[in-house]
Design goal:
Length: about 250
């Protein structure tokens, strides 16, 4: 599929849904679906790098997912520890970052995450952000707590705390995603059409794309189809069509 390479979304966020159902259709354990999901991550990462995407954020494990069977959670943690550094990040010159309540993760998983982040810090083709033990409500709650703690510390040196000093920018700077722009395009695979507590603040003006394909079957062509759909849309950010039209040179 031909794409306008001058109009590639700079930040794509993906809800990778359908691993379990993919496995169930084939009479396999849910963990097999997660293994195949990693193969899809490799494909999509490589294609995003080729297309010039600068940020790819993947919803990998939500805070709600801790309620899943222990065997499945253990398998997911095992995939985090698998040899992804060379196969994905170093091979494709991709920087790795993680967002979420990673303090809840096993110590060995935390150590591995920090190690990969350190080892890939100088890679600059693209940044892959993995949302792990993450939920948007957790993130917003944490941001509010952090802001209040900062205001409390400030009040020790000044008489009054002024709530008017809290702006949208203040909140954005205290979110897990402070280091990157908001997503241009959010893709959800697996046929569901909901956001599932993912990047609620950041996707205020993000274009949403839903498809029926289970994540293990999501490939380069499916990604290009999603981007092509994005390229047909007009992003107005609350303005009218006339307001967002480029000015004539005449």
């Amino acid at each position: 599929m031909e794409l306008d390479l001058t109009h590639i979304p700079q930040h794509i966020a993906i809800i990778m849904d359908g691993n379990g159902r993919w496995a169930k259709q084939r009479g396999l354990p849910r963990t097999a679906g997660h293994v195949e999901g990693v193969a899809a991550v490799k494909r999509i990462t490589e294609e995003c790098v080729r297309l010039g995407v600068k940020f790819l954020t993947l919803y990998t494990f939500s805070t709600e997912n801790w309620n899943r069977p222990a065997e499945e959670v253990s398998a997911l943690m095992g995939l985090v520890l698998s040899n992804l550094e060379e196969d994905i990040f170093m091979k494709n010159n991709v920087r790795f970052r993680v967002i979420g309540d990673i303090k809840r993760l096993p110590d060995n998983v935390q150590q591995r995450l920090w190690q990969v982040m350190e080892n890939t810090a100088d890679n600059d083709a693209m940044t892959m952000v993995v949302a792990l033990s993450y939920s948007a409500r957790w993130e917003l709650t944490k941001a509010v707590k952090d802001i209040l703690w900062e205001m409390k510390k400030t009040s020790l040196t000044r008489a009054v705390m002024d709530p008017e000093e809290i702006t949208e920018e203040t909140i954005a700077q205290h979110l897990e995603t402070y280091f990157m722009p908001d997503p241009d395009l959010l893709i959800r695979t697996g046929g569901e059409q909901r956001i599932s507590n993912y990047l609620l603040w950041q996707i205020a003006y993000t274009e949403l794309y839903f498809c029926d394909t289970f994540w293990p079957d999501f490939n380069e062509e499916a990604l290009r189809t999603a981007i092509a759909d994005y390229q047909q849309r007009e992003r107005r950010y609350g303005k009218t069509s006339e307001q967002v039209q480029p000015k004539s040179n005449n």
